[in-house]
Amino acid sequence: MKLFRTAFGATLLVACLGQPALATTQNVIFNGTISPTCTLVIATNGTMTVSPDLQTLSSHNSGGSAGTVTLTTTGGVSLSVDPVTTTTVPAADTTSTTWTPTYSSAGAHSIVETGSATAISTPGADLVSVHLAGTKGGSNRFANGNYQATVTLRCE
Protein backbone atom coordinates (compact mmCIF):
# COMPACT_ATOMS: atom_id res chain seq x y z
CA MET A 1 0.00 0.00 0.00
CA LYS A 2 2.84 2.36 0.86
CA LEU A 3 4.44 1.61 -2.49
CA PHE A 4 1.15 2.35 -4.23
CA ARG A 5 0.83 5.75 -2.56
CA THR A 6 4.42 6.64 -3.45
CA ALA A 7 3.90 5.62 -7.07
CA PHE A 8 0.59 7.45 -7.28
CA GLY A 9 2.12 10.62 -5.75
CA ALA A 10 5.04 10.50 -8.19
CA THR A 11 2.69 10.02 -11.15
CA LEU A 12 0.54 12.95 -10.00
CA LEU A 13 3.62 15.11 -9.59
CA VAL A 14 4.87 14.32 -13.09
CA ALA A 15 1.42 15.05 -14.50
CA CYS A 16 1.31 18.44 -12.77
CA LEU A 17 4.80 19.42 -13.92
CA GLY A 18 3.64 19.44 -17.52
CA GLN A 19 0.72 21.80 -16.78
CA PRO A 20 1.06 25.59 -16.57
CA ALA A 21 0.43 27.00 -13.11
CA LEU A 22 -2.82 28.89 -12.66
CA ALA A 23 -1.95 32.56 -12.15
CA THR A 24 -4.04 34.95 -10.12
CA THR A 25 -3.74 38.69 -9.69
CA GLN A 26 -5.25 41.28 -7.40
CA ASN A 27 -5.04 45.04 -7.61
CA VAL A 28 -4.05 46.96 -4.50
CA ILE A 29 -5.33 50.54 -4.54
CA PHE A 30 -3.58 53.38 -2.72
CA ASN A 31 -5.34 56.64 -1.89
CA GLY A 32 -3.91 59.84 -0.46
CA THR A 33 -5.26 63.29 0.27
CA ILE A 34 -3.24 66.43 0.80
CA SER A 35 -5.12 69.35 2.27
CA PRO A 36 -4.15 72.88 1.26
CA THR A 37 -1.29 73.82 3.55
CA CYS A 38 1.56 76.25 3.90
CA THR A 39 4.46 76.93 6.21
CA LEU A 40 5.99 80.29 7.01
CA VAL A 41 9.51 80.54 8.43
CA ILE A 42 10.99 83.92 9.36
CA ALA A 43 14.36 84.46 7.71
CA THR A 44 15.02 88.06 8.84
CA ASN A 45 13.21 90.81 10.71
CA GLY A 46 12.77 94.18 9.01
CA THR A 47 14.28 97.58 9.74
CA MET A 48 12.47 100.91 9.47
CA THR A 49 14.27 104.22 8.96
CA VAL A 50 12.89 107.73 9.03
CA SER A 51 12.47 109.95 5.98
CA PRO A 52 14.30 113.32 5.79
CA ASP A 53 11.05 115.20 6.56
CA LEU A 54 10.43 112.96 9.65
CA GLN A 55 6.91 112.07 8.45
CA THR A 56 7.57 108.49 7.28
CA LEU A 57 9.15 105.62 9.18
CA SER A 58 9.50 102.81 6.65
CA SER A 59 11.40 99.76 5.50
CA HIS A 60 11.38 101.40 2.06
CA ASN A 61 13.37 104.44 3.20
CA SER A 62 17.10 104.62 2.62
CA GLY A 63 18.81 102.24 5.06
CA GLY A 64 15.60 100.33 5.76
CA SER A 65 15.06 96.69 4.89
CA ALA A 66 12.18 94.30 4.46
CA GLY A 67 11.57 91.40 6.76
CA THR A 68 11.83 88.12 4.87
CA VAL A 69 9.84 84.93 5.28
CA THR A 70 10.17 81.61 3.48
CA LEU A 71 6.80 80.32 2.27
CA THR A 72 6.25 76.72 1.22
CA THR A 73 2.77 75.68 0.08
CA THR A 74 0.75 72.96 -1.60
CA GLY A 75 -1.37 75.65 -3.24
CA GLY A 76 -5.05 76.29 -2.62
CA VAL A 77 -4.22 78.96 0.00
CA SER A 78 -4.35 82.72 0.39
CA LEU A 79 -1.46 84.96 1.50
CA SER A 80 -2.12 88.25 3.30
CA VAL A 81 -0.93 90.68 5.98
CA ASP A 82 -3.05 91.68 8.95
CA PRO A 83 -3.42 95.31 10.01
CA VAL A 84 -0.77 96.33 12.55
CA THR A 85 -2.15 96.00 16.08
CA THR A 86 1.00 95.89 18.22
CA THR A 87 3.28 98.93 18.30
CA THR A 88 5.75 100.42 20.72
CA VAL A 89 6.55 104.11 20.40
CA PRO A 90 8.55 106.51 22.56
CA ALA A 91 6.62 108.57 25.13
CA ALA A 92 7.48 111.77 23.21
CA ASP A 93 5.50 110.55 20.18
CA THR A 94 1.95 111.58 21.04
CA THR A 95 0.47 111.98 17.54
CA SER A 96 -1.22 109.21 15.59
CA THR A 97 0.60 107.09 13.04
CA THR A 98 -0.98 105.24 10.13
CA TRP A 99 0.76 101.87 9.74
CA THR A 100 0.63 100.20 6.32
CA PRO A 101 2.01 96.65 5.93
CA THR A 102 2.67 95.24 2.45
CA TYR A 103 4.36 92.17 0.99
CA SER A 104 5.69 90.77 -2.25
CA SER A 105 7.09 87.38 -3.21
CA ALA A 106 9.58 85.86 -5.59
CA GLY A 107 10.09 82.21 -6.39
CA ALA A 108 7.39 79.81 -7.52
CA HIS A 109 4.83 82.61 -7.21
CA SER A 110 5.58 86.15 -8.28
CA ILE A 111 3.46 88.60 -6.29
CA VAL A 112 3.89 92.33 -6.87
CA GLU A 113 3.92 94.34 -3.64
CA THR A 114 0.41 94.54 -2.19
CA GLY A 115 -1.46 94.88 1.06
CA SER A 116 -4.35 92.74 -0.14
CA ALA A 117 -4.87 88.99 0.02
CA THR A 118 -3.48 86.97 -2.87
CA ALA A 119 -4.73 83.52 -3.83
CA ILE A 120 -1.99 80.95 -4.45
CA SER A 121 -3.33 78.02 -6.43
CA THR A 122 -0.17 76.05 -7.23
CA PRO A 123 2.47 74.40 -5.03
CA GLY A 124 5.92 75.86 -4.56
CA ALA A 125 8.34 77.83 -2.40
CA ASP A 126 8.84 81.59 -2.24
CA LEU A 127 10.83 84.24 -0.45
CA VAL A 128 8.28 86.76 0.82
CA SER A 129 9.44 90.33 1.52
CA VAL A 130 7.35 92.09 4.17
CA HIS A 131 7.44 95.89 4.37
CA LEU A 132 5.99 98.34 6.86
CA ALA A 133 5.47 102.07 6.58
CA GLY A 134 4.29 104.41 9.31
CA THR A 135 3.17 107.86 8.24
CA LYS A 136 2.31 111.05 10.11
CA GLY A 137 -0.25 113.49 8.75
CA GLY A 138 -0.27 117.27 8.56
CA SER A 139 2.55 118.92 10.49
CA ASN A 140 3.12 115.92 12.79
CA ARG A 141 6.59 114.36 12.91
CA PHE A 142 8.16 111.23 14.37
CA ALA A 143 9.87 111.88 17.72
CA ASN A 144 13.28 110.51 18.66
CA GLY A 145 13.34 107.09 20.33
CA ASN A 146 12.76 103.44 19.58
CA TYR A 147 9.81 102.28 17.50
CA GLN A 148 8.63 98.72 17.02
CA ALA A 149 5.63 97.29 15.21
CA THR A 150 4.58 93.73 14.51
CA VAL A 151 3.26 92.63 11.12
CA THR A 152 1.41 89.32 10.94
CA LEU A 153 1.85 87.51 7.63
CA ARG A 154 -1.00 85.05 7.16
CA CYS A 155 -1.24 82.00 4.91
CA GLU A 156 -4.50 80.08 5.11
UniProtKB/TrEMBL annotation:
<feature type="signal peptide">
    <location>
        <begin position="1"/>
        <end position="23"/>
    </location>
</feature>
<keyword id="KW-0732">Signal</keyword>
<protein>
    <recommendedName>
        <fullName>Spore coat protein U domain-containing protein</fullName>
    </recommendedName>
</protein>
